[in-house]
Amino acid sequence: MSKNLIGSALDVLFFSAVYTVLVVIRTIISPVTGVGLSYLSVGTSFLGGLVFACFLAWMVSKMELRKLDVSLTLWFTLFIIQHLSNTIEGYFFTTYYSSTLTVVISLLVASASTFVESIMAVFLFYKERNKTRLLPVLSDFFKKRRPGSWLWRIVAASLAYLPIYFLFGMMISPFIIPYYSSSTALKIPSFTVILPLEFIRGFIYTVVLVPIISSVKISRRTLFVILASFLYIPGAFLNLIVPGSLPTGILPFHLLEILGDSIVYGYVLARLLGRPR
Predict the structure, then answer these.
(1) In the structure, how many helices (H) and strands (E) does the chain have?
(2) Does the pLDDT at position 72 exceed 60?
């Protein structure tokens, strides 16, 4: 028992160390402005990597797929939620991305980084239980409901992100608006941009998390914890705790805002898209 605990702890530490190296490399290579390299950023990345490793170790243990499919599912989902979605929002809400080329290079670097993360997660935390492939699992998952039922659930899940986003955004707006108004790095786009942007992000989250939902045969309560954690930890926490990602005066408010978003939206996704009882 003690040997297993020590081995698991060493795996978590090793993953965190590799993750920190990836953040350092990504920071050096990426053309995105606003985030620099320092001892503090390395330290916060390592601490974030510990949280990330613990989450992945737990989630991977619930996935009933063969090793290759777990790797590909993780890579796809992490890239979209950890980087693509945030890059899309960052492009409209900050001046960190100076051009379309900056976005493309940043995403290519992020794709390579998440590929290594997924490989490391499977190598360290996966215990092979079966040879199930993802495509048959998805096929069986979608057969659980009629096409019409899936259609309204996907539309509802995509639309649900909008009111949740605005609710928690309004709650913190008195604390963050002054920073956005006086900052040259932060900006608030018009509602004609925000509405379609956040609907697209809701649709992306809905579609991208389906492979995760289909590959774990667990209670809806546990599924809710997985989805909320996925949306928050790689989706926000890991990026925001890096010094320079946001001004320190508004960082706690955004962390709390996205935590609320993730909990409520994770619950909605679990209720709408979880396996029928």
Answers:
(1) 11, 0
(2) yes
Q: How confident is the model at residue 103 (pLDDT cuts 50, 70, 90)?
A: confident
Closest to 200 measured CA to CA, from 91, 124, 48, 47: 91
211 and 118 in contact (C-beta within 8 Å)?
A: no
Greater model confidence, 169 or 35: 169
What is the spatial distance between Cα 247 and Cα 24, in angstroms, rounded to a whole number? 20
pLDDT over 60 (residue 174): yes
- Name the token pair of 228: 């909320």
CA distance 121 to 111: 15
- Domain segments of the chain as ranges: 2-31+38-273
Q: Report the alpha-carbon distance of residue 213 to residue 194 in Å, rounded.
A: 28
**pLDDT over threshold 60, residue 1:** no
Cα angle 11-16-22, degrees, rounded to a multiple of 5 = 130
Q: Residue 244 region, left (φ>0) first, then alpha (ψ -120 to 50), else beta?
A: left
Rounded to whole angstroms, the Cα distance separating 97 from 31 reads: 8
Q: From residue 219, how far is each of 31, 213, 270, 274, 276 by CA, in Å?
A: 43, 11, 10, 9, 10
pLDDT at 49: 96
pTM (2 d.p.): 0.92
Q: Nearest to residue 185, comparing CAs of 104, 119, 246, 255?
A: 246
Question: Which pair of tokens denotes residue 115?
Answer: 């590929």
